[in-house]
Amino acid sequence: MAEPTPRRNEPRLRPAPLLFEPAEAASDPEHFFDLESIDDPRALLARATELTLAFRAAADRAVEFQAMAAAQLADPRRFDRLTTADIAERAEWTEDYAKKMVEFGRDLMRGDAEGRRPGETA
Question: What is the pTM of this model?
Answer without folding.
Answer: 0.66
